[in-house]
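In response to a reviewer's request, we include the raw inputs and outputs for one of the modeled complexes. The two entities were modeled together in a single run.
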Amino acid sequence: MNLILIFIAAAITNNFVLTYFLGICPFIGVSNKLESAFGMGMATTFVMTLAATVTWLINNYLLIPFKIEFLEYVAFILTIASLVQLVEMFIRKVSPELYRALGIYLPLITTNCAILGLTLFVVMRKYELIEAIVFGFGAGVGFTLALVLMAGIREELEFADVPEPFRGTGITLIIAGLLALAFMGFGGLIGS
Amino acid sequence: MVAASILTMVGLGIFFAGVLIFADRKLKVDEDPRVEELSQKLPGLNCGACGFPSCRMFAEGIVGRKEEAINSMCRIAGPELAELIAKIAGVTTEIAKEVAVVYCGAKTKDKTKKAAYKGVATCGSANIIFDGGMNCEYGCLGFGDCGKACPFDAIEMEDGLPKVDPYKCVACGKCVKVCPRNIMGLMPFNIDDLVIPACKSKNKGAVVRKMCSVGCIGCKICEKLSGGVFYVEEDHSKIKSERIKEDVKWDEIIKKCPTKTIVRLKG
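The model returned the following structure tokens for the whole complex.
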């Protein structure tokens, strides 16, 4: 039950993008096309789940025993960067098609603040390993959801008669704000 | 604590570096360095004129010596790049520069209307609604869908007709595909000027005369004067693009054409 709650909280009620405003750059940058938004979401979900697992292990078996928890930022960034590199090589080998489809987005995940935020949340909330994994996966699903929602709206927006000053980034940010408002409706449903 | 932190971070770094080195060895993808070299030099516009979705895939096709890649040359390639591509592909290629042309000469004042079209201002929409209000169902609608489709800004609308800049045009064929009336086409362009019959009307001469002052009436004067470089088919004049280098009295044909349908496109 607890795990389901963690998953739903991470994916919907406390959506990383629309409630915590983490990972806004890919949210704005990669959401012009549904296809690429979904690809980016999938890649991020994968890295998030993996990152949550590995950083949990590092935190609990390395940083805490040696009492150097203050290094968590540095250690986690190192971990995430290496993981993304690893995933990139792996995808390139296994599926060149997917590799080409994801293109630049894959290395971009390295600097995605949503992932660093996720790993820090795991530490802050003192999750167990299995909880951390579910949390990471849920956060990834939530990220994908936000990206796909945004991409769907932006594709429709192509046909809308947007006033000139709002065209481009302006209207995108307004829509992001409205989406975030909608997600605020879930606020307080599940603690954190 | 200082020692512990330094050691841990160094350890972590070395560990991840080790994993990455190991992964790099294990998961190495063998790639021909020429693919990288060639795709660096290709225009990178991914216009798709060669038949490949991206310049990189075209480069891969050339390096892999795939037939469809060799047969379809990069349209934007200059002579230097063409030589490189030919060298890698192991063939000698000669690129025939082509350019997009418009087979309609009716300017805004020449177009007669049967209704006022006030719908969405694109050729695609106008074409399906009452011929866009035009009497002629073959001529240019003049909303410039071709110009919007052109990735190289080579087409400008001028007096209701698209005007192609032959130096910007790379003959990718996007305008040809997008034109709902099929009046765009590609023509070889290695001479300084180009003479084309600017009409595609399949109507009989008498009908054309009523609706358009520059429409082809199929009188066959051009056919006789050019010795068959021009020929009349489907009630309008056409040109054999493979014979345009022949010595034809272009000026005389242009002058003798009773409806001034044969036009010269200046380079």
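As requested, we also summarize the result in words. Chain A has nine helices and no strands. The mean pLDDT of chain A is 87.
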